[in-house]
Amino acid sequence: MHIFWPLIHLSFAVGALLAMVAGAHMIRQQRSPSSTIAWLLVIVIMPYIGVPLYLMLSGRKAKQRASRKGVLKIAQQEAAPLDQTGRADSLLRAYSLPAATVGNRVELCVNGEIGYQRLVELIESATRSIDLATFVFHLDEVGREILGRLSRKAEAGVDVRLLVDAVGTLPVTRHGYHPLVEAGGHVAMFMPLVHFHGHSNLRNHRKILVVDGVRVIAGGTNIGNEYIGPTPMAGRWRDLSFVLEGPGAATYAAIFDSDWRFANGDGAPPKTERPVRTGVGDAVVQVTPAGPDVETDALYDVILSSIFDAQRRVWIVTPYFVPDDALAQSLAIAARRGVDVRVLTPRKSNHLMANLASGTYLREAQSAGVKVLLYPEGMVHAKAMIVDDELAMIGSANMDMRSLFLNYEVSMFVYSRREIDLTVAWYEDLAGYCEQGIDDVGPVRDLVEGIARIVAPLL
Predict the structure, then answer these.
(1) Which distant-in-sequence residues (6+ apart) come within 8 Å of 266 by Cβ?
(2) pTM, entire model
(3) What is the Cα–Cα distance from 207 to 146, expressed in whole angstroms?
(4) How far is CA 251 from CA 96, 178, 257, 276, 385, in A?
(5) 84 pLDDT exceeds 60?
(6) Contact status, residue 284 vs residue 247, Cβ threshold 8 Å
(7) Going by C-beta distance under 8 Å and a sequence separation of 6 or more, which residues neighbour residue 39?
(8) Is 89 helix (H, G, I), strand (E, B) or coil?
(9) Domains in the chain, ordered, with CATH?
(10) pLDDT by residue (tens digit) across 421-441?
């Protein structure tokens, strides 16, 4: 008993010291107020639990990545004239990100069957190199088929590199992709949990296939039965991807190369040069990376700026709607000043926490005049935003704090009218299946959703 109370006092003192150090580190980071307050509460109340969780989950910008290879740098192609783009392009250039380019060709893949067909066509057309990065690569029927095609291309002498996120692809491990390695291809796991060289909470959510350095398929679609397939399947998720050819493809190739070097060291560089193909179409596009390898939160800033600039419409589709306070407020203000603001999201997503956390945000948005469109027939996994007739954004980033502030993401901004109109037509078709409005809930559900909203910034 003589030593009991001194140990108690010591444990309190150590806990307080840990909380102070972690709190000071957090305040110096570029975090949203809601995230900072949530973490401070956990650290102060439960320092022996909160501090280890903070060290494991809280990092936002991968400084250790910068020390290994530098922050992501992309060579600038010939920039489009600003009178063909607008404020979003100007803002992204101010952040030293690649400017918009002209002379691109874009084809939307509006469902999983078209996405599968184009993916297979691109793989089979490869003569020099195939680079595939994805968050999820299930080894189900579709995944095995794609892996087999990649392996056959590697056997034929094509340089094949597959990069999968170590968490997103669980329970599949590196061994599951061994047939590709045996065929002469290369496989890397992005930031494995056992030997990670960074924060385990920073996941690579990018989806990129680059063929011969000049043709790309990208967007929000992973590899698996629920995303893509040769024939329609009951319950397949509604998703959106696109095929891109032109100078914009070079930016996707550079992003893949950067991610590959980070995940795999300096091994297995591309065996072929990265040509830049121009003048293949009339689309004006801007490929914009976001995440720990980008010094600023430029993607978030341009989304926010575009909403404030909107005059006629802001249409959003996202599988998870968990914005920070500033983004939620910008949508509410836009709706109150007469802009047609719509948020399309599944009635029930595949993540319980996202379902709970989004409820309060959707009801607050609806009360401000935002049209809430709920897709009742399953999962919508597409990520897109349309602002007036000025721009469309399609990519991997959800409208939630994880995508906007933590994950490695990449989006394509489109400024040409034809491609914007095609995106509008896709959105209107999807909206035709939706129910408008979100219902009120009882006090118990409201309490649970409020707790989920507080916890969401921690994750």
Answers:
(1) none
(2) 0.86
(3) 15
(4) 13, 29, 10, 10, 21
(5) yes
(6) no
(7) 26, 31, 50, 54, 58, 457, 458
(8) helix
(9) 4-59 (no CATH), 112-237+247-280 (3.30.870.10), 298-458 (3.30.870.10)
(10) 999 999 999 999 999 999 988
